[in-house]
Amino acid sequence: METLKAIARRKSVRSYKPDPVPEEVLNTILAAGCAAPVGMGMYDSLHLTVIQNTEMLGRISEAVKKIMNRGGSPLYGAPVLIIISSRESMPVAGIEYANASCLIDNMLIAATDQGLGSVYIWGAGPAVSSDISLMKALAIPEGFKPVSGLVLGFPESPDMSEKELKITISLNRI
Ligand SMILES: Cc1cc2nc3c(=O)[nH]c(=O)nc-3n(C[C@H](O)[C@H](O)[C@H](O)COP(=O)(O)O)c2cc1C
Question: Does any domain span residue 171?
Fold first, then answer.
């Protein structure tokens, strides 16, 4: 798929089939994440955790619900959750959020390219980083903290519609 087509077709999907994502497709998406720009090229300040275990997805879903103070199913029944963690001590305050976002957006677009649905899951970071037992169960490396994540999988209702690519956000030109 052309890049602009994938950007136009990407949308947040909030209902998934339980079907697993083929390993080679998942690896393609992870590799797209690893090709993202990262501040000062500090790729070793990042760590990815891929969660496909149903019981663990349920535990994290409950933790996200608690931290976001909301009901429902915050991981939307997706079969894959990817958590992006960052080294805790970074030379520039907040750069870990920018780094995680760059990885996530590459993966969201790559997932669209591969015919999958996906959505950014902000709460996955704080939900896991504030729960020591989840940190241990997920083997988050020492000195790293989960920042945020995304889920992906086959959409319950595939939607191939494309956004019209046009300038919609406030801007000025000098
Ligand atoms: C930083 C960030 C955090 C987000 N966190 C969540 C989230 O926790 N749960 C969710 O359902 N969507 C989340 N989203 C998705 C946005 O709500 C969505 O991208 C936006 O409404 C635009 O819709 P679209 O993705 O379908 O184009 C997040 C998006 C971003 C960029």
Answer: no
Residues sharing a CB contact under 8 Å with residue 63, sequence separation 6 or more, in sequence order: 127, 128, 131, 134
Query: What CATH number is given to the structural domain containing 66?
Result: 3.40.109.10
For ligand 1, atom 6, the nearest C-alpha belongs to 121
The whole-angstrom separation of Cα 156 and Cα 126 is: 27
- How many structural domains are present in the chain? 1
Q: Beta partners for 140?
A: none
- pLDDT grade, residue 1 (50/70/90)? low
- pLDDT tens readout for residues 65-121: 999 988 899 999 999 999 999 999 999 999 999 999 999 999 999 999 999 999 999
Q: Is residue 158 part of a domain?
A: no
Q: Could you tell me the distance, in angstroms and rounded to a whole number, from the CA of residue 174 to the centre of ligand 1? A: 31
